Batch of 2 targets.
Target 1
Amino acid sequence: MAGRPSIADRYVRQEQFAPLGADGQATLRDASALVIGVGGLGSWMAEILTRAGVGRLRLADDDGVDWTNLARQAMYTEADADTGREKAEAAAARLAVINRDVTVDVRCLRARPDNIESLADGVDVILDGSDDWRTRFLINDLAVKMARPWVWGGVVECRGQTMTVLPGETACLRCVYDEPPAPEKERVMKAAAIGVLGPAVAMIASIQAAEAIKILAGQRQAVRRGLWQIDLWPGEWRDLAGARDTDCPCCGMRRFEHLGA
Ligand SMILES: [Zn+2]
């Protein structure tokens, strides 16, 4: 049909967005991201980045899809829940039909101290979709040690928080929190215990994906500094601590306890 946009026009609306432009789009094509956990946050982030044309994605998750996921997790279907299909595999299959140009590397495993370095090998940014504090501290240690940017995100009920860490430039997770909550405390704080609202997940994932796009497009100056908390139900947005702590055991002292180093 004459005048109908074709595959060559796929990213035209993004390229029209002046801060990105055609150069930014070309940079995204050559970039790569690791998404740790492709549940609520991770599945939205992976879909957004795939549609945005980020060239290579690595997805890490050892969970299968279940029926409690479908109310908020992008990409998954009733058939996936019926069969308990591995999330990373189900996500990769969906992403392959969304954008043929994106290479997706599937790792059906959970990030641990002994595998996170190889998981993060060669990626330009790490995105937290883990819903797990120990994993976040592990990502933070690795990211600071390897000077790799990462974007933390978490959601329970309709409240979410997110922070982007640019090692050596911005506060890291341990500048803000000394250590993960005790396991018994974390259990009662989780979405699995107190519930979660789909739009809150999509909102935090969208912010994380936007920060990743800034980083991958080489626009670090646009990255948001500090911790951002959002409560979607009453519509409240709060800026919290964002300053680096010079005594931080991780980015100050360079002790990477969560990596076992
Ligand atoms: Zn720090």
Target 2
Amino acid sequence: MLLRTIVIAGGGFSGVVTAANLLRRPPAGPTRLVLIERGAHLGRGVAYADWKFPYLLNVPASRMSASSAAPNQFLQFAQRRLPQVTGEDFLPRSLYGEYLQEVLLAAQLSAPSNIRLEIMHAEVLNIRRIERHLPLQVELSGGARLTADDVVLALGNPPPSSIPAASAVLDHPAYTNDPWCAEFQFDRPQNVMLIGTGLTAVDVINRASHDPLFTPTIHAVSRHGLVPPRQTAFRPDAFKGDGNALLLAASRSLRGLTSAVRLLASEAERCGGDWREAVTFVRNMAPTIWQRLPERDRVRFLRHLRAQWDVHRHRLPPQMLHRVESLRNNGRLHVHAARIQRLQPQGTRVEATWIERHSGQTRSQTFDRIVNCTGPDYDIARSTHSLWRNILQCGLCVPDSLGLGLRTGPGGAVIDANGWPGPHLFYVGPMLRADHWEATAVGELRVHAERLAAVLSEGR
Ligand SMILES: Cc1cc2nc3c(=O)[nH]c(=O)nc-3n(C[C@H](O)[C@H](O)[C@H](O)COP(=O)(O)OP(=O)(O)OC[C@H]3O[C@@H](n4cnc5c(N)ncnc54)[C@H](O)[C@@H]3O)c2cc1C
């Protein structure tokens, strides 16, 4: 039998978990599996990198397994390191990166002899398709090339885009567009502005307030000024809402859907539960609901309801909310519901002007540092990533119409410019939100990685 080569571009959660599943249940014939990561470490990405700061997972340990068939796998891994850990603990994100490395190693060691894993550290720069059913050509940094029967794009979380108001300060030393790429120090006399009040902003607040002696005064600004609420130890499967009612409401109108979700949340609380249980219930149905919503309702959802959904859906470990609240109480953190009008250089500092949402008042202040915390920008049409630009240009993939990611078909097959799901090019990762809406967290991505591995093993 001919050797089949499967290339996975990107070795974060999605790439590693897809590879581990393929190693456990490989295709029938001899297979060469090549996992290519541009960074120094596998299983990390931005989310699970080994930072100097103790960032925490925002989901309890019992719900972070990389395998849907073994829900306690991460908890058991953590308990081998830290025996006192419970399933309700919020553990360090760097520990999760170590867990993913162990998942891959274990799968590699127990893999059957017909599959071989090769790990390469390089950047995938381009993929070419000569003809529809011929193997793909994969071009890497350093000039290397590979011929692949199948390629999986697992390129992960892109950097944020800059907001239009920041155009005059993009190169200013006091402005940081991507908090994950920058090394910066904070100091007590400083004034710092964060653009955004969601999970990325809370990560930067965590970093800035790590040492109380050096905590600056922070102003966090977003259109609605909403800070994520506390994650709780709720029972994710305890709530038995009415899925059919929800689907019916979704097919009628967005307004009906919103009322149905509100009703579910109050029903959960009335029965002694927690509104978060209803949100999890809706989250599990989100792909079906999203696929039923007509495009005009998706647009309206993104414009009017997204901020509300995101703030209820993406929650904070209690320790982090406590930190945020005490910084607010002692005047070190100010949260504004406002629109930033412009950022202007002022010597070594930057002057920000914003309009408060409720009073309409215009305010200006000079800051020592401004950090863009708007989070990953999944709109590949504006991507500066070489691989996305190249494969978009030659029509191997197309962005979705709402700027959420790319168009995919069954099993993550990438849809090309002719509207065909390419037979040998696949995508797994957060940009699946274009078709599934909820697709950024471990709970959803592990299922997509498992399905994709099954398609690659069994399909052909
Ligand atoms: C800061 C942060 C914290 C998060 N915390 C949680 C959490 O607590 N719980 C949860 O469930 N979810 C969390 N998430 C969601 C997270 O998106 C997923 O859990 C998961 O990390 C996504 O994995 P990924 O592999 O798709 O992307 P990534 O983790 O971004 O990995 C992509 C990898 O591809 C590599 N790569 C990119 N381009 C190339 C190229 N051209 N060639 C070679 N390699 C390339 C990158 O270097 C990277 O290692 C978090 C996300 C972020 C951003």
